Amino acid sequence: MLIVEVKEGETIDKVLKKYKRKFDRAGILRELRRRKAYSKPSVERRSEVLRAMYREKMYGNKN
């Protein structure tokens, strides 16, 4: 549960902006989307390896 402290005299817009920022940083939506469908551990591991290979290819050692 996200709790946002509201200071006296603070506008609702600022509080809503704080809430949205906290929500994004907490990664709640990402977690919900990840849990939406089950994927086997072997498939998850394979996708991790492929992502790592891609990152290494794109941003790896450029000598």
Molecular structure report:
By secondary structure, the chain is mainly alpha-helical. The model has no long low-confidence stretch (mean pLDDT 92). Helix content is 68%, strand content 0%. The protein has 3 helices and no strands.
Task: Provide the fold topology.
Blueprint: H1 12-26, H2 28-36, H3 41-59
List keywords for this structure.
3 helices; 63 residues; mainly alpha
Rg over CA atoms: 19 Å
Strand percent estimate: under 5%
* Regions with little confidence, pLDDT below 50 for 5+ residues: none
**Tally of strands:** 0
In short:
This protein has 63 residues and is mainly alpha-helical. The protein has three helices and no strands.
